Amino acid sequence: MYYGHKKPLDFRGKIILLVDDGAATGSTLLSSINLIHLKNPVEIVVALPVASNSAYKKIKQSPYIHRVICLLIPSNFNTVGQFYENFNQVKDEEVIQWLKKTAENLSMSNLNT
User: Fold this and answer.
1) 9, 22, 52, 85: least surrounded by Cβ within 10 Å?
2) Nearest to 49 by CA among 25, 73, 32
3) Phi, psi (5° rounding) for residue 64?
4) HSE (CB half, 13 Å, CA atoms) of 19?
């Protein structure tokens, strides 16, 4: 649904920066990393604003991740949402709009180079 009629991106030889809103267990993030790794990127960097200590350790131990940037690993972690003023779910339609806008911006910047 997110790709529309486009092919998935080719990650071969690229540095992938995967940004997540936070990690409670790290399981979903690690599943994504495993899929990204299959596409042969040069490097995978994970960026998180917040993570539980156990999730951070689990993510750091992945052999596929080259760097983890995490701003906060609080001792009082219960849920990712507790560290946000507004933690509403993002609707699929909104994601599709942002992906289209990003693609348009990338196309425009490629024309200007």
Assistant:
1) 85
2) 73
3) -95, -15
4) 2
For the chain, domain boundaries: 15-76+89-111
Number of CB atoms found within 10 A of residue 54's CB: 14
- Name residues whose C-beta falls within 8 Å of residue 15's C-beta, 6 or more positions apart in sequence: 41, 42, 43, 44, 45
The pLDDT score that the predictor gives to residue 22 is 97
DSSP per position, the chain: --STTSPPPP-TT-EEEEE-S-BSSSHHHHHHHHHHHTT--SEEEEEES-B-HHHHHHHHT-TT-SEEEES---TT-S-GGGG-S--PPPPHHHHHHHHHHHHHHHHHHHHT-
CATH class of the region 15-76+89-111: alpha beta
